[in-house]
Amino acid sequence: MESIIGVLNYGAFFAITAGIYAILCLGLNIQWGYTGLFNIGIAGFYAVGAYTSALLCGPPPGPLDWRTVGGLGLPFPVGVLGAILMCGIVALFIGFISLRLKEDYLAIATIGIAEVIRLILKNESWLTNSVWGLKHIPPPLHSPIQRGISGFLSANPDASVAVKALISKSYNWFYLGLVLGIVAILYWVSERSIRSPWGRVLRAIREDETVVSAAGKNVFRFKMQSFVLGSMIMGMAGSLYAHYAMFIDANSFEPLYGTFLVWVMLIAGGSGNSKGAILGAFIIWGIWAGTDFMSGYLALSAIRVASLRIITIAILLELVLLLRPSGLLGEEKFVSKMMGKSKRGG
Amino acid sequence: MVIYGLISGSIITLGAVGLSLTYGILNFANFAHGDIMTLGAFLALICLTLMQALRIPATTFGALSFGLPMVLALMMAMVLTGGVAILIDRILYRRLRKSGRIVLLIASVGVAFGLRNVIQFIWGPLPQYYSAEIQLARKIPLLGIRIKPDQIFIIGLAAFLVGMLHLFLQKTKTGKAMRAASDNIELARVSGINIDRVILYTWIIGAALAAAAGILGGLENKFITPNSGWEMLLPIFAAVILGGIGSPYGAIAGGMIIGLSEEISTAFISTAYKPAVPFVIMVAVLLIKPRGLFGGK
Amino acid sequence: MALLEAKRITAGYGETEILHRVFVKVNEGEIVSIVGPNGAGKSTLLKTILGLLKPREGKVILEAEDITGLDPDRIVRKGICYVPQTDNVFASLTVEENLEMGAFIRKDNYQNRIQEIYTIFPDLEERRKDRAGKLSGGQRQMVAIGRALMLEPKIILLDEPSASLAPKLVRLIFQKISEINRSGVGILMVEQNIREALRIADQAYVLAMGRNRFHDTGQALLNNQEVGKLYLGD
Ligand SMILES: Nc1ncnc2c1ncn2[C@@H]1O[C@H](COP(=O)(O)OP(=O)(O)O)[C@@H](O)[C@H]1O
Ligand SMILES: [Mg+2]
To answer: Which of A307, C83, C158, C163 could form a disulfide with B121 if both were Cys (CB 3.0 to 4.6 A apart)?
Structure first.
């Protein structure tokens, strides 16, 4: 029984992280899956979201901190909104530089901004507290729920151990509900928007930009909207992560975790498919977490195991590209004959 | 400072020229290029160890801090890295060529992470050294500035390799065909140019130059890590964009400009932000002259 | 004897079918023009003959040899060279290098051939060291045709060689094409300058909506009232 509860509780922890990745995937799906925009600086937006939210909602700097600003102690929703807004601004800047150009420029520009953000996190200790990170980021509704838990435990002193174990982790279950609720909302919004005229233009841009501009649409504007929207969603994911982890530092946002995994997730699940984005996040996160379990059986150092896991994911990505390029679910087919697929050529 | 700029410029240039070639001819941004550099640097390490085991005499050259084995290792690593690049192309990129440039780009991101972690798996994340003893190369005065003999070697070798590449591209049939393919691959195909052969050469040359860049970077910094090449990727891309994509000559100028500005920037801003300098330059280029100084693709 | 024959060609891009059982034939020593409205599928036909597109139906026959579905580089080796409608020079290579690239698969010494090309297009010799991208439209077209001639092909496919040239240059290019033809090279060309194209053609085809509409000698089509009304604005 207890082991079942243990598994359940681990399941909640697992699903929260996977859910946060699913949000990142949905953001990327709007950019890449719908519009064909290649963002490889996901980690940067994720970090901006996390830090913004932490600085808005967290406690003021403590005596041992390097940082001198932030810690306004604002409520959680303000943090999320701030994260969204901040990422939107960064995305506007990047989009302005590179969205008029060929798609690879966006890739390079996003990698560049992610690098700059990483440097800022590391070096601007007045803001980010450098490698010591931001601590005690308040999880939303933590104290009322904890009060509820202690209330229940003191009211039912002779409840079984299993029930106690489950109840005492209620906060995780609450947070899981929050994350999955947001995933559901974003899924709905994604599905609605891709079926709207706006979404059809995005897809047409991905298929053939020249046809869209020939039809008199401002391609740059649409690309910008898609890029900014996707980045905002990534910022939201960062905020959710910060309030769950309660502690963030510059090392939480290595390019691998943020960017590479999300790409593999989306491609494995099926680009251009919101269900695929969510499915990919859970499956790849499952494989990632699973290889962590298995590593216990390998007589290798932790660092070697970490490398091995990344190699596994990299090979997985290449296999998907070679064998199942449209991912597990493939792209959803829409009946959209509005924009012809014909290309002009001579 | 200018010397340091020239040295890092030479190294960036070697990387950028190779990247620009593959970019122009294969028509995709190879994000694994930095890790190919790392691979070269570590392959040189293997060759070096091998030669020590074989007791190749460590003949030294004048005031250089390394000897014959290092030079041999450098050449062997360049060849081997070219081989690995071809292997990756045959296994992966070739099969994906029809899927378009962005799929290739994604695949190269996978290759980048894969290669880096294979290296990290074998050697671990800590710095590795080409030579156990620390030989302090004397500084010699040259034109009124002090420069280490090793640094002269780095600049000299980079110049030599770029010169060889120039001759190859200008004077040989295959070199011209590479330029033609970079210019207009469809036309190259209907002219009867053997595109497969052009691609083969492109990988060999691009990867060999990348390996040289990785090794020279190791000689200058005195160590290599599995992240060395990745950390060079941004300056290299900036150099390629600055010079104009697909223009190897632009990449030379771009590489030198990026190298120099990185070093000179340290006079004005904290060294911690040195890695951001290429990005800032790149942003400026994209805003002002997106096709690069020398008009690439 | 038929030098090149495309029989019942059906071809297209992806799902869309552009050409429907199209037929053209070039006899030895002939100039054959293909004319027709924009989007008729003229360029598509040339691409299919060269092997850039694979036909779904039909055959391409070169001197009694079936070359249907071969890759372009194989077809080029068999003696068909092609000048695309746009982007038909290597802009960053010099004029001379462009010609060398045309001779890429030749193993013999082709310096003589370069000289011969310069005799046909004296303009190019003056500018042999200049990058092709810097040349005028007319000169570029000469480079493109010169490049295609480097292999001494049996036949060249020209896609709108006179497009966007000034009238004087149009005449010059047509003159050169006749000259090349007289030296023994078959010509299959697509043209928008319909009158000129029909005038110098031995045979001509009118293509519309991916189908053969008319086929006759060039002169006969020029005099054909229906063709005149539809395509020449008479
Ligand atoms: N690469 C391509 N992909 C899809 N459709 C094409 C392509 N090239 C041409 N088409 C279509 O094929 C038709 C015929 O084009 P084309 O052969 O270029 O005509 P023409 O040369 O007679 O003007 C046009 O409708 C055009 O839109
Ligand atoms: Mg045409």
So the answer is: A307
CB B222 within 8 Å of CB B132: no
Q: Of A97, A103, A303, which is closest to B283 when you measure between CB atoms?
A: A97
pLDDT class of A338 with cuts at 50, 70, 90? very low
Q: How far apart are CA B28 and CA B48, in angstroms?
A: 33
CB contact under 8 A, C14 and A346: no
Nearest chain A Cα to C39, which residue?
Answer: A346
Specify if B246 maps to a domain. no
CATH code for C2-85+153-232? 3.40.50.300
Give the gyration radius of chain A's Cα atoms: 22
Q: What is the C-alpha separation between C20 and C212, in angstroms, rounded?
A: 8
CB pairs A-B closer than 8 Å: 111
Which positions in chain A touch B92 (Cβ < 8 Å)? Answer: 318, 322
Interface check for B92 against chain A (CB to CB < 8 A): the answer is yes
Indicate yes or no: CB of B107 within 8 angstroms of CB of A321: yes
Q: Which residues line ligand 1 (CB under 6 A)?
A: A 342-346; C 13, 18, 38-44
Average pLDDT per consecutive 10 residues, chain C (234 residues; last block may be shorter): 92 90 94 93 95 93 93 92 94 94 90 93 93 92 95 95 89 93 95 90 93 91 84 72
Is residue A291 situated within a structural domain?
A: no
* pTM higher than the cut 0.90: no
Residue C36 CA, closest ligand 1 atom number: 22
Chain B: touching chains (3 or more CB pairs < 8 Å): A, C
The pLDDT tens digits for C171-187 are 999 999 999 999 999 99
Query: How many domains does chain A divide into?
Result: 1
Question: Considering the domain boundaries, does residue A152 fall inside one?
Answer: yes
- Closest C-alpha among C112, C119, C199, C187 to residue C148: C187
Beta-carbon separation of C16 and A345 below 8 A? no
- For residue A242, being part of any structural domain is answered with yes
Predicted complex ipTM: 0.89
Judged on CB neighbours under 10 Å (0-12, 13-18, 19+), C157 is: buried
Per-residue confidence (pLDDT) for residue A149, from 0 to 100 = 84
Mutate to test the pocket of ligand 1, among C9, C18, C38 (most ligand atoms within 8 A of CB): C18
Question: Which band of pLDDT confidence, cut at 50, 70 and 90, is reported for residue B257?
Answer: very high
Band (pLDDT 50/70/90 cuts) for residue A336 is very low
CA of C53 to the centre of ligand 2 (A): 14
* Domain coordinates in residue numbering, chain C: 2-85+153-232
Residue A65 lies in a domain: yes
